[in-house]
Design goal:
single chain, Arc Repressor Mutant, subunit A, mainly alpha, about 180 residues, globular, 9 helices, Rna Polymerase Sigma Factor, Chain: A
Length: about 180
């Protein structure tokens, strides 16, 4: 079934289409999380959360696909997994420090940014994730993505960041970040 048909059916609330989507990409998405040091149970939970995000955006007609559904779901899964790893890391540090504090505002801001990144094209997603979340150098990004040089990667990163800024500003108000 084509992505446009799946998106249309899900947008109309067709749960069978969601079930088909779940089965179609289950192995791909769970394998991705397991490769990133997740357990099978964690991978399953992350994939289910990603489908919920996808479902909510599709049903509310806020989803504009600029890539394949599999790419979109993959980016959601990786973003959710990164957040989970960050959460685990913070909890681990807090346990060591004897402090039990979770910054809900930072989590919400991070969620907004990750949702907007997921709406970008595959190349922009990779560039921004590599640069800001994986701390890769522009030269490493250029090598990994097959760009001519670090300057090309820098220019593309700048354009992608501008698109991300525009998406955030278009979809969220300053109060979403200040509450």
């Amino acid at each position: 079934m084509k992505d446009s048909v799946i998106l249309d059916r899900i947008g109309r609330g067709d749960e069978k289409a969601l079930d088909e989507l779940y089965r179609k990409y289950y192995r791909m998405m769970t394998r991705a999380i397991i490769k990133k040091n997740g357990t099978e149970e964690e991978a399953k939970d992350i994939y289910q959360e990603a489908l919920i995000v996808f479902w909510q955006k599709a049903v509310s007609h806020q989803l504009v696909l600029t890539s394949k559904i599999s790419t979109y779901l993959y980016s959601i899964c990786l973003n959710l997994w990164r957040k989970e790893l960050d959460r685990k890391s913070r909890l681990s540090h807090e346990e060591k420090d004897g402090v039990e504090f979770i910054d809900d505002e930072s989590l919400e801001r991070s969620k907004i940014i990750h949702e907007c990144i997921a709406q970008l094209g595959d190349t922009c997603q990779k560039i921004l994730m590599y640069y800001y979340f994986d701390d890769m150098s522009l030269q490493d990004i250029a090598n990994k993505l097959g760009f001519a040089n670090a300057e090309t990667a820098k220019t593309k990163k700048y354009k992608c960041k501008k698109r991300l800024d525009s998406l955030v500003k278009a979809n969220y108000s300053a109060s979403d970040f200040l509450d």
